[in-house]
Amino acid sequence: MAVPGTRDSQVDVFQLPSERRILTVPDVKSTKTGMIMAIRILYKKDLIAITGYESGHAAIHAHSSSDNTWQLLYLCNAHTQPILSLDASPDLTCFFTSSADATIGKHPLIAPTKTQSREHSADGPLKAVNTGHAGQQSLRVRDDGKIYATAGWDGRVRVYSTKTMKELAVLKWHEEGVYAVAFAEIDQTPTTATPAPVENRATVASTTQSLTHATGSVSQQRDAKARTTHWLAAGSKDGKVSLWDIY
Question: Which key words tag this protein in UniProt (predicted)?
Answer without folding.
Answer: Repeat, WD repeat
